What we know:
The chain has 268 residues and is mainly beta. 13% of the residues lie in helices and 43% in strands.
Amino acid sequence: MNKKKWTIVGGIAVGLVVLLVIAVAIANHFSHSQSKNDSHYQTAKISADSLSLSGKVVAQNTYLAHPDGQVKNLPVKTGDHVNQNDLLVTTQDDAGTRDTKAPFEGTVVVRYDDGASMPTIELSSVNHNVNTQVSEYDHDKLHVGDTVKITTVAGDQNIEAKVTTIAQDPSGDGKGTSQYPVTIDIGNQLMNGQSVKINAANPQIKVPAKAIVDGNKVFVVKDGKAKKVDLEGQLQGDVYLVTKGLSVDDQIVTNPDSKLQDGTKVEA
């Protein structure tokens, strides 16, 4: 065989070797991809619904004095700060002289309604509440003792405070969605009358109902493996409202099946 023929044969051999190498590489790539995507389980990171409400700052206590008779002494004026038992007004009538004193510490407003000759004295406590309402759909998301974040609409002041009461009976006339009064104790941190926004610090965690197994369990992915955990809460429609057992940012399997068990490898 001459030199030219040897060159052709050698070229063909090299070409076959190159094709074989490429075929092996492609096979390995698909094999690796198939192995990587073996898991058909889908996962999701737990997030929480935020509960946002609007409210108003109000005095925890108010007192109105409507003195009778003739004013003999009015030592206070609008804006004055008084302590408990400080004199608000002294009046005199046929029964004699009467002193009206502050029943608690607070701020005074003196006004004359509709041109009246006798003043009305209003006393507001230095400590305040935020009054708001929660709907029947969100009532179970808020609890007495929960910490909430409060932001003033004007000025963007931010404070944290605790929920003190949540009514079990709705306000209003019963028409439309029921609303339940809520009070939040804020001390003397904000001014009376300010409008505020409220955000719950412990919002409700919800899990898709299809992720629940055995009535109240879910598979959490830890270190690439599934682990079944018990939950406390209740099923409501197509979601499970979790009160205990999961935390925000936990990774769960959203499409468990009968083959999934503790230790199954799952890619998060």
